[in-house]
Specification:
0% of the residues lie in helices and 36% in strands. It is mainly β and 171 residues long.
């Protein structure tokens, strides 16, 4: 878990402000970020969302969703235990978007990510034992799903499985 004073750390953005246009750097370096393309709020800016507002996802659940506008990211949360191993798949059938998923730990750090590889078969981004270690702590985890370039829209499917207890999963 980062706190902002680690040696060599250039910037650390917790993104926990909840409002405004500035994302504060938690290091002494002052590398603050700006949401959107202007210093004032406008309709194209990303919206702050509290973790309690994320869509809930359970082990063994699959769902169908839509990236309805350019740059949209869908947020999902799930509860897990230390040592759980997960399989998260984001797939498309129409290839109108390039799936990308990121998994964040309870403290907000990126644990792993995957992007659709055009050289592979099927339009699937997948996190599994090969590219994501066992979950480090008990808590609420976050999945961010979107288009890898942020410039396409379309339908997708998302599924979550617990690999260390296959009885709780689906194929």
């Amino acid at each position: 878990t980062l706190i902002g004073n680690e040696t060599g750390l250039v910037g650390y953005w917790r993104m926990d402000e909840g409002t405004g246009q500035v994302v504060g750097d938690s290091t002494a370096n002052g590398n603050h970020g700006q949401l959107g393309s202007t210093s004032s709020e406008d309709a194209d800016d990303p919206a702050w969302r509290l973790r309690s507002e994320f869509n809930s996802l359970s082990f063994g659940q699959s769902l169908s969703e839509v990236i309805s506008h350019i740059g949209k990211l869908d947020l999902y949360s799930f509860s897990a235990s230390s040592g759980d191993r997960v399989l998260i798949r984001m797939g498309v059938s129409t290839y109108t978007l390039d799936p990308q998923i990121r998994l964040y730990g309870p403290e907000g750090t990126v644990l792993c990510s995957a992007t659709f590889n055009p050289g592979s078969s099927g339009g699937v981004a997948e996190l599994n034992d090969g590219n994501c270690e066992a979950l480090p702590v008990d808590g609420q985890y976050t999945i961010v799903a979107g288009d890898s370039g942020g410039n396409e829209t379309g339908n997708y499917g998302l599924s979550l499985q617990r690999l260390n207890n296959p009885g709780m999963g689906t194929v």
